[in-house]
């Protein structure tokens, strides 16, 4: 069993480390400015998404999809805000990076892009690990495979400094897969929901 635990430990750390390194090379290709804007967009997106997810959930419920599971709506709102802000920042970064490449600082821009690119994707993994470790459904299974990991505590620590997820406050602690699947299977647009309600009232 000790050897099996060591294999899990090696696979987790080596896999995460290799992915971060490879994506750091991608950061070298993109350049510092593009990676910097992407990182700012990621952090800013998480910051605003964590504070505006409730408003976004109400907007989605009223205008796009109606469901009874508010935690799931908040999660959708969080993802939507994060994607919008991150996309806008990435577009701006691409524009400024092209301007930088036309100057005499192209290699310097790429060198710092490697460092920042690796850091950005390490942060992404940190956010994913932090989110998963706060969901009871996933936490118990996850910790069985990473209890000897070197990177896991650092990932969780970094992720916790950026976003503070309290499963009790958003109702995830007692959520289970069946409840989520039921809500996803019963997605209705607001207009459809109102039609169903009026038909029920007429039949009464």
From TrEMBL:
InterPro entries: Colicin-V_CvpA, CvpA-like
GO biological process: toxin biosynthetic process
GO cellular component: membrane
Localisation: Membrane
Broad class of the protein's primary localization: membrane
Keywords (A to Z) from UniProt: Membrane, Transmembrane, Transmembrane helix
Transmembrane segments annotated in the record for this chain: 7-25, 31-50, 71-92, 112-135
Membrane topology: Multi-pass membrane protein
Record has Transmembrane helix as a keyword: yes
PANTHER family associated with the record: COLICIN V PRODUCTION PROTEIN
Name the UniProt record assigns to this protein: Colicin V production protein
